[in-house]
Design brief:
single chain, alpha+beta, 3 helices
Length: about 150
């Protein structure tokens, strides 16, 4: 599923952050997962924030679970130290213009969705945000999947 994990391009920078309701609707932002690895750097805590609840279908939820599992197996969401190693091995993924020079961005898509993972592998703040969008070519299919 994540063989096509790519580093972000500057044109995609806005997709790593929340926007106005109008922009989120136009972009097809389903919501985002915000997480951190606790004070030890080894635990996994995450909260879901809905942007367009009608797009959070059972099929999407199942896919999101699979995406999080795959990112964990790949090391990105395994621990803060694993995320840090992964990000350092991809210096081209640094998000220019971010609030800190240690912010990295990765993106990929599935058949129906696009994902933008913003990583900050340092203690003292949230370590990742995973923004979830319906693919642009599927925006007209906004009715819930069955």
């Amino acid at each position: 599923m994540l063989e096509r994990l790519q580093t972000a391009v500057s044109e995609d920078a806005a997709y790593f952050y929340s926007a106005s309701i109008e922009k989120d609707t136009k972009r097809g932002c389903i919501g985002h997962l915000r997480g951190y690895f606790g004070s030890s750097g080894e635990t996994f805590w995450a909260n879901w924030f809905e942007h367009l609840p009608a797009l959070k279908t059972p099929a999407f939820r199942a896919e999101l679970d699979a995406v999080v599992r795959a990112l964990t197996e790949q090391g990105l969401l395994q621990s803060r130290s694993q995320m840090h190693r992964f990000c350092l091995s991809h210096p081209e993924a640094r998000l220019s213009g971010a609030w800190h020079s240690g912010v990295y961005g990765f993106c990929f898509q599935t058949e129906r969705h696009r994902y933008y993972l913003r990583c900050f592998p340092h203690a003292g703040d949230y370590n990742f945000y995973l923004y979830c969008y319906i693919r642009p070519d599927r925006l007209s299919e906004r009715s819930p999947e069955r």
